[in-house]
């Protein structure tokens, strides 16, 4: 009897649980249906292929993943601006219906509306009329074509379309992927500079072969890639001479990829604090800020590599310094401990050795004195005041000679294997004018005798 009662109770419990699960599923289904019915449009924003906005008069169409403006001009669009409009319909909802009377449209700013937004997919089209902001909350009044209801929805519906033609346009002055760049050419009033990429480094080819400053080249490319037009002047110029673009004052060209596709920016006449410019592959003439243009007014020295040191110095295991008539030879063992081999055999000050190598590793020239010196004597490099050599596993990494002072702040220097005479900060000379006491730990035997006395 007890077993039968227990079985009946278990059956009722199972039916109760099943009922709760069913009701929860029904509630979830109803909630999902309600959310779907509250959507402003029935399709996802990703399905939208065309967007039109009045009264600004914009009509844009999505081609693959990009947007292009077709009216009032045919030009590239700002993808972020158009995507913001389309993506909004993934989440924008009808928050509340406030009226269904056409006579009340004017009181909600819908007769006439502030703006009209038309959306089109491949098979559907919807037109939305946007009115005033609501009195309470962050909402805007709107109405959909073919329906009488005035509803409240997110104010983003207004904010995302309350823009000018300029806002909707692609304002990138030159579109390219920096990672694909393998050559750069810069022309300005100071010359023509041609640079090519070799591995991860840049080299100058014109006006002469030099090591190039890779960070500077990347900085310039980054500046061009992220620069935006400040305004559009002429979408179909009859002549470029009016803007000085037939004979540009500045030209920036970048060659990309294995097919060597070229992108070119031309910069023409100056007007107050701005310059006329254009992408050579597209007709619109636009304006760019003078501060950006000045970043292209580079010299040979600006583009040259001024780094004299090397990151490998941190691994160096042998250092030789010749200071005047004294040679200091130091070696690092497998435990990363430095020893002085010459002029005496003694334990070296590890911290001092690390400091010297760090100074050499980060050594950077501040200028160039001569690329083809007829003689090293005028620079004091025929008989250097200090010479330094850095080795790693018997391979010489670095050879530096320091000569005369040019002024109170700079001295002449020369790197082994390089004909160029550099200018570096004089502070390095002061740091390398070392004595035995500076480099070596105190002699233990002498120290013990001294302490015993």
Task: Summarize this structure as a short list of keywords or feature phrases.
453 residues; 35% strand; elongated; Immunoglobulin-like; 9-stranded antiparallel sheet; single chain; 24% helix; 3 domains; alpha+beta; disordered C terminus
What do you see in this structure?
The longest helix has 37 residues, at 2-38. It is elongated, with a radius of gyration of 37 Å. The protein starts with a helix and ends with a helix. It is α+β, with helices and mostly antiparallel strands and 453 residues long. The protein has helices spanning 2-38, 79-88, 156-159, 165-168, 214-226, 290-294, 300-303, 350-361, 427-432, 436-439, 444-452, and strands spanning 50-54, 58-63, 66-71, 75-76, 96-99, 115-120, 125-133, 139-144, 150-154, 181-188, 191-198, 201-206, 210-211, 231-234, 250-256, 261-271, 274-279, 285-289, 318-323, 326-332, 338-342, 346-347, 367-370, 386-392, 395-405, 410-415, 421-425. The chain has 3 domains: 45-168, no CATH class; 178-303, Immunoglobulin-like (Sandwich); 311-444, Immunoglobulin-like. Strand 10 (181-188) and strand 11 form a beta hairpin. It is built from 11 helices and 27 strands.
């Amino acid at each position: 009897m007890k077993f039968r009662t227990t079985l009946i109770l278990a059956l009722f419990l199972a039916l109760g649980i099943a009922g709760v699960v069913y009701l929860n599923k029904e509630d979830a289904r109803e909630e999902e249906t309600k959310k779907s019915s509250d959507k402003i449009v029935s399709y996802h924003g990703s399905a939208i292929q065309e967007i039109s906005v009045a009264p600004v008069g914009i009509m844009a169409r999505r081609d693959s993943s990009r947007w292009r403006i077709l009216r009032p001009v045919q030009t590239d669009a700002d993808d972020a601006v158009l995507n913001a409009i389309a993506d909004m319909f993934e989440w924008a909802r009808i928050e509340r219906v406030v009226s269904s009377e056409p006579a009340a449209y004017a009181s909600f700013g819908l007769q006439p509306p502030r703006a009209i937004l038309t959306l089109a997919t491949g098979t559907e089209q919807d037109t939305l009329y946007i009115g005033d902001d609501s009195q309470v909350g962050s909402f805007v009044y709107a109405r959909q074509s073919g329906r009488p209801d005035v509803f409240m929805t997110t104010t983003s519906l207004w904010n995302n379309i309350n823009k000018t033609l300029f806002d909707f346009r692609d304002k990138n002055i030159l579109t390219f992927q920096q990672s694909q760049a393998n050559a750069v050419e810069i022309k300005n009033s100071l010359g023509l500079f041609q640079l090519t990429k070799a591995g991860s480094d840049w080299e100058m080819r014109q006006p002469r072969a030099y090591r190039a400053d890779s960070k500077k080249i990347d900085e310039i490319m980054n500046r061009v890639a992220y620069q935006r037009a400040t305004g559009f002047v002429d979408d179909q110029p009859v002549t470029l001479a009016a803007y000085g673009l037939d004979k540009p004052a500045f030209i920036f060209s970048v060659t990309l990829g294995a097919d060597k596709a070229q992108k070119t920016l031309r910069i023409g006449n100056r007007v107050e604090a701005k310059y006329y410019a254009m992408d050579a592959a597209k007709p619109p003439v636009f304006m760019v800020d003078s501060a950006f243009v000045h970043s292209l007014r580079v010299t040979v020295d600006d583009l040259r590599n001024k780094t004299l040191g090397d990151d490998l110095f941190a691994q160096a295991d042998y250092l030789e310094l010749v200071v005047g008539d004294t040679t200091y030879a130091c070696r690092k063992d497998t435990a990363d401990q430095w020893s002085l081999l010459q002029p005496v055999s003694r334990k070296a000050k590890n911290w001092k050795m690390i400091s010297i190598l760090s100074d050499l590793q980060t050594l950077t020239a501040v200028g160039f004195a001569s690329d083809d010196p007829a003689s090293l004597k005028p620079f004091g490099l025929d008989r250097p005041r200090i010479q330094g050599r850095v080795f790693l596993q018997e391979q010489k990494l670095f050879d530096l000679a320091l000569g005369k002072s040019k002024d109170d702040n700079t001295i002449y220097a020369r790197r082994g294997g390089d004909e160029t005479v550099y200018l570096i900060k004089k502070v390095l000379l002061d740091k390398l004018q070392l004595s035995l006491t500076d480099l070596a730990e105190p002699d233990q035997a002498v120290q013990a005798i001294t302490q015993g006395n």
